[in-house]
Amino acid sequence: MSENLFSGLKVVDCASWIAGPAAATILSDFGADVIKIEPPGVGDPWRGRGPNPKAPTDYYWQLTSRNKRSLAIDLKHDEGRAALHRLVSGADVFVTNFPLPVRERLGLAHTQLLPLNPRLIYASFTAYGEAGEEAAKTGFDSTAYWARTGLMDMVRAYDSYEPVRSMPGMGDHPSATGLYAAIVTALYRREKTGQGGLVQSSLLQNGLWANGCAVQTRLFGDEVPHRPTRLEVPNALANHYRTRDDRWCIMAL
Question: pTM score, two decimals?
Answer without folding.
Answer: 0.91
